[in-house]
Amino acid sequence: MRYSIFSAGAALLTTALAVTVSYDAGYDDRGRSLNAVACSNGKNGLITKGFTTQGSLPSFPRIGGAFPIAGWNDPNCGTCYSLTYEGQTVNILAIDHADGGFNIAESVMNTLTRGQAVFLGSIQVDYKRVDNSLCGL
């Protein structure tokens, strides 16, 4: 019996979790300075890794805010997350803070929702953290 409970618990650890996703067209701005986001400079910042604008990030425009980033110079800066909505999946590079979920580029939310970002406003997605290489880092 202990084995069955442990096995069920281990399976849950690999299951995606649900969270809210919204959009901000500011993440679509290729020329926007990384000084405008929480993951700007500092030891964990993206500027210190050689990036200067959102457009200089290898995953642009698949970027946005993520709830694991508490604020400036957070250790979770530059982490990669897989977001899935109704069978559509995108990987997002976390470059900023977001309350309670993810806040991504409007163009990317349109990819997830098949062009319905503005109409829907926010959606519930399944998410999981994935290897940073899937976001180009």
UniProtKB/TrEMBL annotation:
Pfam families referenced in this protein's UniProt entry, alphabetically: Cerato-platanin (PF07249)
In which broad location class does this protein mainly occur, judging by the first location in its UniProt entry? secreted
In terms of domain of life, where is this protein from?
A: Eukaryota
Span of the signal peptide: 1-18
Q: Where in the cell is it found?
A: Secreted
InterPro entries membership: Cerato-platanin, RlpA-like_sf
The Gene Ontology CC terms held by the record are: extracellular region
The protein's matches in CDD domains, at most eight in alphabetical order, are given as: DPBB_CEPL-like
Keywords carried by this UniProt record: Secreted, Signal
Query: What family is it from?
Result: Belongs to the cerato-platanin family.
Q: What is this protein called?
A: Putative SnodProt1
Provenance organism: Venustampulla echinocandica
